[in-house]
Amino acid sequence: MTNLSVNVNKIALIRNSRKGEVPCLENISRICIENGAKGITVHPRPDLRHIRPDDLELISKVTKELSVEFNIEGNPFEKRTGDYPGFLNLVENFIPTQCTLVPDASNQLTSDHGWNVLSEKEKLIPIIQQLKSLGIRTVLFIDHDIDQIEAAKNIGVDRVEIYTGPFAKAFKNNDLKIIDDYKEAISFSKSINLDLNAGHDLSLLNIEKFLSLGKFKEVSIGHALVSEALISGLSDTIKEYIKLTNPK
Questions:
Q1: Which stretch of DSSP H or E encloses residue 137?
Q2: Suppose 108 and one of 97, 104, 182, 214 were both cysteines; which one would form an S-S bond, judging by CB atoms 3.0 to 4.6 Å apart?
Q3: Whole-angstrom Cα distance, residue 222 to residue 83?
């Protein structure tokens, strides 16, 4: 069984394009959960272009009420600036089920690489320990690299989230070498008893193939899911993901 966590950043981006609260993050989150999603993911960035700090209270309330997971992702080194209170301050204020640490720069359009755990472990270790002391499942966003996976295991993370952007491109181009590299990395993670999440550019077209490569606890999907929902409707799109992530 692989849980689906829906990233609602794109919903917030649409809302922020005009004044007001349409589309409503609470309603969208409820629809996702009612149709089978097991979690909601947010990535609050310092430029506040989508998820805003006040959204976290709402998402935290909804996920607790409906007994699903709340995942906050972002760069732990983002400090307070303007109306952005700093990433770790947000996490400490709302205590999500899971915190996924990503190495995005402040002005980065979207995540496009994982941590270099080998060179940054001394900075990451105290943050991981801090989050785990709060009872938060702690995840590192990393590339499909065996050395990085092993380094993540060694510094005590609960899981890693494999960056799947290169897989999506390889799937589109039928690049079997890259796909085999993913399979090897996934197999290695299993051999060292490190649980896996995955995310980025996964879609209804490629997720079945990806999940055939190994066992995953969770996939986090936002951009593709929202785009597909524009055509098929949100409820039906969520149901299709549930069929593919939890085949009978």
A1: strand 137-142
A2: 104
A3: 24
- What is the DSSP code (8-state) at residue 175? -
pLDDT, mean over the chain: 96
The whole-angstrom separation of Cα 83 and Cα 37 is 30
* Angstrom distance (rounded) from CA 194 to CA 3: 17
pLDDT in tens, 200-238: 999 999 999 999 999 999 999 999 999 999 999 999 999
Amino acid 226: pLDDT:
96
**Domains by residue range for the chain, with CATH:** 3-245 (3.20.20.70)
Q: What phi and psi values does residue 209 have, to the nearest 5 degrees? A: -65, -45
Residue 69 among the catalytic residues: no
Q: Which of 200, 218, 228, 240 is catalytic?
A: 200
Q: Does residue 200 carry a catalytic annotation?
A: yes
Q: Say which range, 29-38, 68-77, 99-108, 119-128, has the weakest mean pLDDT.
A: 99-108
127's tokens: 């943050």
Annotation says 73 is catalytic: yes
Question: pLDDT-based confidence at 153, cuts 50/70/90?
Answer: very high
Tell me 78's DSSP state: P
Number of other residues whose CB lies within 10 A of the CB of residue 27: 14
**193 φ, ψ (degrees, to nearest 5):** 60, 45
Q: Do residues 200 and 165 make contact, with C-beta atoms less than 8 angstroms apart?
A: yes
Catalytic residue among 50, 73, 78, 228: 73
Nearest to 199 by CA among 106, 116, 100, 118: 100
Q: Which helix (H) or strand (E) holds 6?
A: strand 3-7
